[in-house]
């Protein structure tokens, strides 16, 4: 552990020596933790971020010269046409299935958030969301990976679809313990690689000084889902990073999603096929915005590059522009579902500033100079985070594929009583999806029955049709279908 004098020498040139003001009152363990946090900071970068010297795009100006993205629209998918990509849905499915059969696909599941907005002070992935079963978000996602591997197992008992699950410092230990307790919901140990993202310190908005959460701890927050890229290499498990694991397993493409959205068809062969058929380095799913001001990032082309402009940075008059058919010109809403080429991610790892930091003003509790806790009522601090979609302009041949909201997007974000994205909202989407699969397959489902399908019983509509053809179903009451 470094001496107080060494830490003072590190901090003083940057005006941050106040961070060790309470050093002598700390236990040895707390001193060690604080020293580790302080030594991990790039102080020149932090000063540049505070001073605004790091390039921040003029999003309003970019939005005014943006064009809609190169995309496969939902209507073309449903009609079986090649659309804007020149790859038909049937061809895409064959390409995707071949990649899955060959074991070249992994899943990147981002699970760094807690369920605080839900009144659930645990990792959000542990939230029970199954409409009948109370299955957690983790269970639903990981069982999809198990079912996907079973469907595409060319050598029974071997291989699988590896899941790379990213936590944050506040969720990591609870997540590891929970998944171990539940035996990874059926995933083999080598099919689940849990790694932790990095953090960034918050600074005082008026002075740029580091904020202390307590006398021996900085106020740190996760560095955003864009921190995934660095963490894939930096976090080691038995000396092996996630990227190393991918190389060993022969994983060439990653299906990316966030843990709060249980509707995502993990490893969807059609989506993978568009990615492969166009030789894209980064493929993104969009849903069509219903209103100009929908709270979704906007996929747009600027100077021939695909990028996302957040709804808060998109001028109202631009968002309201319509096309020749009367629909929204800027229709493509981002839902944080992507396919990445692993080689592309490795290339991005070699670029220190591949992802810019975004600056947000927040209310951050902290200790004052007397060591007393201050609970601000107004924004007092700056937080810095990176967003995964900022990789888009760096990618070669990036594409967008439109899906219907009802088939892919029902994120759990809000407590009961909010207009949408509540537990009840998500459960309704899950039930409607599963009811639709069953009825399309010829099953009879009572109008007042709540039905839920475990991925282990059927992964999707195709799997449901196979099960119903084997044994016709008539469901009269609330039912959870699971092997």
From TrEMBL:
Its EC number is 2.7.7.-. It holds the Pfam family UDPGP. Keywords: Nucleotidyltransferase, Transferase. SUPFAM superfamilies: Nucleotide-diphospho-sugar transferases (SSF53448). It comes from the Bacteria. Belongs to the UDPGP type 1 family. This is Putative uridylyltransferase. It comes from Botrimarina colliarenosi. The lineage of its organism: Bacteria, Pseudomonadati, Planctomycetota, Planctomycetia, Pirellulales.
